[in-house]
Amino acid sequence: MKFTVYLSGEVHTDWREEIVQGIEKENLPIEFLKPVMTHSASDNVGVDVLGSEDKSFWKDHKAAKINSMRIKTAIDRADVVVVKFGEQYRQWNAAFEAGYAAGKGKSLIVLHPEEFTHALKEVDASAQAVAQTPDQVVELLKYISTQK
C-alpha cells in the first residue's frame, strides 16, 4: 500500500530531508509532498505572476492565496500530514495547515521540541502522534505504512 505524506512547517532546517532519507533507507512505499521551499519564490509568486502591488499587504495577500492552492491540494491528497514547528520563527502557517488537516480528518503527526508542548497543546490534542525528532517520524511512518 502506497502512502502519500505532506511535510508542512518550518523551512529553515533539513528535517524534511532527514525524514525522506530515513524512508528511502527503509525502502518504504511513501510519496512526499512539500510546500515551495524557497522563500523568495513563495513570497513573490503573486507579484511575479499577476503584477506588482504598492502595499506589502496586497503582495502578501496574493502570494498567500496562490500558495494556499498548492498547500490545500497537497493536504487533500495526503494520507498523513506531518507538521514541524521549528525554533527559529513562529510558524503561523504551520498552525493553520495543522488545523486544516485536522478539519479534513487527515492523520496528523506534529513535530516540535518539548519546550513547545504548552504553546501547542491544542494542535497536539488534534494530532494522532506528537514527535520530537525526525527519526521518530520515520519510525511512525514505517509502522503505519507496512504490514507487520
Please describe what this structure looks like.
Strands 2-1-3-4-5 form a 5-stranded parallel sheet, with helices on both faces. Helix 1 packs parallel to helix 6 and helix 2 (39-50) packs across helix 3. The protein has a single domain, classed as Rossmann fold (3-Layer(aba) Sandwich). The protein has helices at 15-26, 39-50, 56-77, 92-103, 121-126, 134-145, and strands at residues 3-9, 30-33, 80-84, 107-111, 129-131. Helices cover 51% and strands 16% of the residues. It is globular, with a radius of gyration of 16 Å. The chain is built from 6 helices and 5 strands; from the N terminus they run E-H-E-H-H-E-H-E-H-E-H. The chain is α/β, with parallel strands linked by helices. The two termini are 13 Å apart.
